[in-house]
TrEMBL record:
This is Rhodanese-like domain-containing protein. It comes from Actinomadura soli. InterPro entries: GlpE_sulfurtransferase (IPR050229), Rhodanese-like_dom (IPR001763), Rhodanese-like_dom_sf (IPR036873). CDD domains: RHOD. Residues 15-102 form the Rhodanese domain. It holds the Pfam family Rhodanese. It comes from the Bacteria.
Protein backbone atom coordinates (compact mmCIF):
# COMPACT_ATOMS: atom_id res chain seq x y z
CA UNK A 1 0.00 0.00 0.00
CA UNK A 2 1.46 3.34 -1.01
CA UNK A 3 0.21 6.48 0.69
CA UNK A 4 2.65 8.67 -1.24
CA UNK A 5 3.20 12.21 -0.08
CA UNK A 6 0.07 12.17 2.10
CA UNK A 7 1.93 10.51 4.96
CA UNK A 8 4.75 12.33 6.74
CA UNK A 9 7.58 9.84 7.06
CA UNK A 10 11.01 9.47 8.57
CA UNK A 11 13.79 6.96 7.94
CA UNK A 12 14.33 4.51 10.79
CA UNK A 13 17.90 5.78 11.15
CA UNK A 14 16.56 9.29 11.79
CA UNK A 15 14.15 8.48 14.63
CA UNK A 16 15.60 10.24 17.69
CA UNK A 17 16.71 7.94 20.51
CA UNK A 18 14.42 9.82 22.88
CA UNK A 19 11.55 10.00 20.37
CA UNK A 20 8.12 8.60 21.22
CA UNK A 21 8.04 5.41 19.15
CA UNK A 22 4.56 3.87 18.88
CA UNK A 23 4.55 0.23 17.77
CA UNK A 24 1.11 -0.71 16.40
CA UNK A 25 1.82 -4.38 15.62
CA UNK A 26 -0.02 -7.32 17.18
CA UNK A 27 1.12 -8.91 20.44
CA UNK A 28 2.88 -11.89 18.81
CA UNK A 29 4.85 -9.55 16.54
CA UNK A 30 5.83 -7.40 19.54
CA UNK A 31 6.86 -10.46 21.54
CA UNK A 32 9.16 -11.65 18.73
CA UNK A 33 11.12 -8.40 18.78
CA UNK A 34 10.69 -4.66 19.20
CA UNK A 35 12.61 -1.45 19.71
CA UNK A 36 13.70 -1.13 23.36
CA UNK A 37 12.03 2.23 23.95
CA UNK A 38 8.87 1.61 21.91
CA UNK A 39 5.39 1.87 23.40
CA UNK A 40 3.10 -0.96 22.30
CA UNK A 41 -0.50 -0.20 21.38
CA UNK A 42 -1.83 -2.59 18.72
CA UNK A 43 -3.59 -0.84 15.85
CA UNK A 44 -6.94 -2.41 16.77
CA UNK A 45 -6.74 -1.00 20.31
CA UNK A 46 -5.68 2.52 19.40
CA UNK A 47 -9.21 3.92 19.34
CA UNK A 48 -9.71 2.94 22.98
CA UNK A 49 -6.18 3.83 24.07
CA UNK A 50 -5.52 7.04 22.12
CA UNK A 51 -5.36 8.99 25.38
CA UNK A 52 -2.09 7.20 26.17
CA UNK A 53 -0.38 8.81 23.17
CA UNK A 54 1.13 12.21 23.99
CA UNK A 55 -0.09 15.24 22.08
CA UNK A 56 2.78 17.49 23.16
CA UNK A 57 5.51 15.77 21.14
CA UNK A 58 6.09 14.13 17.81
CA UNK A 59 4.95 10.51 17.55
CA UNK A 60 6.91 8.06 15.38
CA UNK A 61 4.63 5.20 14.31
CA UNK A 62 6.04 1.79 13.36
CA UNK A 63 4.71 -1.62 12.31
CA UNK A 64 6.29 -4.53 10.44
CA UNK A 65 6.69 -2.96 7.00
CA UNK A 66 5.10 0.49 7.16
CA UNK A 67 1.56 -0.07 5.85
CA UNK A 68 -0.38 -0.26 9.13
CA UNK A 69 1.73 2.48 10.65
CA UNK A 70 0.99 4.70 7.62
CA UNK A 71 -2.75 4.27 8.26
CA UNK A 72 -2.28 5.09 11.94
CA UNK A 73 -0.09 8.10 11.09
CA UNK A 74 -2.80 9.54 8.84
CA UNK A 75 -5.49 8.95 11.48
CA UNK A 76 -3.41 10.51 14.27
CA UNK A 77 -2.57 13.56 12.19
CA UNK A 78 -6.23 14.03 11.22
CA UNK A 79 -7.12 13.89 14.93
CA UNK A 80 -4.59 16.56 15.88
CA UNK A 81 -1.42 14.64 16.74
CA UNK A 82 1.93 15.31 15.08
CA UNK A 83 2.83 11.86 13.76
CA UNK A 84 5.36 10.44 11.31
CA UNK A 85 5.46 7.00 9.75
CA UNK A 86 8.75 5.10 10.14
CA UNK A 87 9.70 4.13 6.57
CA UNK A 88 10.06 0.39 6.13
CA UNK A 89 8.71 -0.39 9.59
CA UNK A 90 10.61 -2.81 11.80
CA UNK A 91 12.23 -4.30 8.70
CA UNK A 92 13.73 -0.87 8.00
CA UNK A 93 14.58 -0.50 11.69
CA UNK A 94 16.70 -3.66 11.60
CA UNK A 95 18.28 -2.72 8.25
CA UNK A 96 19.30 0.62 9.78
CA UNK A 97 21.09 -1.25 12.58
CA UNK A 98 18.77 0.03 15.29
CA UNK A 99 18.50 -2.06 18.50
CA UNK A 100 15.86 -4.68 19.19
CA UNK A 101 14.86 -6.69 22.24
CA UNK A 102 12.41 -9.48 22.93
CA UNK A 103 12.35 -12.87 21.30
CA UNK A 104 11.91 -14.86 24.49
CA UNK A 105 14.71 -17.44 24.70
CA UNK A 106 16.02 -16.72 21.21
CA UNK A 107 17.32 -13.66 19.44
CA UNK A 108 14.75 -10.97 18.65
CA UNK A 109 13.41 -10.94 15.11
CA UNK A 110 10.81 -9.15 13.00
CA UNK A 111 7.67 -11.28 12.79
Amino acid sequence: MNFGDDVPAVAAADVPQDGYLLDVREQDEWDAGHAPTAVHIPMGQLGDRAGEVPRDREVYVICRSGARSAQVTVALNQAGWLARNVDGGMKGWVEAGRPMEGGGDGAPYVA
